[in-house]
């Protein structure tokens, strides 16, 4: 079982916010971008999909967000719908639950196959993955 880490953010105005969740410091400013993305998530309703042609089957996504990703019998990762049903059609998208936004974005950024795409549902712009800006 993983234990959440607590982080306190102190803004220039002196306001304090407690952030609960897994925080990984890969490069300067990455936490801020992820925090901003998580703040946008309820408004933008993020969706995620996996390109199985590029999937290497390493399983980082399944470890980070088992409620969203799952392996099939072929050893490749697929997304699941909110009911837990595996979506096996190519390019199938599913909504990212608000509480798992950071985990899904982390899995897209750290995927060795660059096969996880996180897009905004409103306009289809990729916010995490190989084609993200």
What features would you highlight for this structure?
133 residues, alpha+beta, Alpha-Beta Plaits, four-stranded antiparallel β-sheet, three-stranded antiparallel β-sheet, 3 helices
Q: Could you give the order of strands across the largest sheet?
A: 7-3-8-9
Number of DSSP helices? 3
Strand coverage percent: 25-35%
User: Can you give the helix content as a percent range?
Assistant: 10-25%
Which runs of at least 5 residues are low in confidence (pLDDT < 50)?
1-26, 38-43
Q: Structural class given helices, strands, pairing?
A: alpha+beta
Shape: globular
Count of extended strands: 9
Mean residue pLDDT: 77
The first-level CATH class is given as Alpha Beta
Q: How many domains is the backbone divided into?
A: 1
- CATH architecture name: 2-Layer Sandwich
User: What is the ordering of alpha helices and beta strands?
Assistant: EEHEHEEEEHEE
Largest sheet: 4 strands, antiparallel
Cofactor: [4Fe-4S] cluster
Function: Ferredoxins are iron-sulfur proteins that transfer electrons in a wide variety of metabolic reactions.
Pfam family, one: Fer4_15
Protein name: Ferredoxin
